[in-house]
Structures are given as structure tokens and as C-alpha cells.
């Protein structure tokens, strides 16, 4: 987990559940909770979601997560045959 990750997590916290954020970052929900409670990265401010680079990062995280879910569903459906 980096400072940039923590800043992005802080920016996403008001609008997303912690378990969903953890899934995007492929980490334990406890890491997200530590950032939310300021036990980790206490001095890091939320990222500006309107900044183009930050918005691009969110889109990439969402796309990667979507691809991962798609692979898991295809694998599960293939195993169910």
C-alpha cells in the first residue's frame, strides 16, 4: 500500500463500502479500515477524484476488477458443466 493508494482510498470512502474498496485494491479489508481510522497514512489527504490522473487510475482499477470477476465467473461456469 502506497501513499497514493491511501489518498485514493480516502477519496473513495464516502461513496463506497470498505469491502468494495478492498476488492478494487486486492487487499484485506482491514487495510482499508486502518486507513479509514487513520491508523495508517494519518497525514495523507484524500485524492482529488476530479484530477485526470486520479480519475484514470480509478477507471483502471475498476476495469481490472471487472476483468478479474469475469475470469472467475467464466471459470466457475466452466467447472459447473
Folded structure, characterized:
By secondary structure, this protein is mostly helical. The chain is built from 4 helices and no strands. It has helices spanning 3-12, 18-25, 29-36, 52-80. The termini are far apart.
Largest sheet: none
Q: Compute the separation of the termini in Å.
A: 39 Å
The overall average pLDDT, rounded, is: 95
Helix content: 55-70%
Draw up the topology in text.
Elements: H1 3-12, H2 18-25, H3 29-36, H4 52-80
Helix pairs in contact: 2-3
Question: Which tags fit this structure?
Answer:
single chain; 81 residues; mainly alpha; 4 helices; 68% helix; globular
Concise summary:
The protein has helices spanning 3-12, 18-25, 29-36, 52-80. The protein is mainly α.
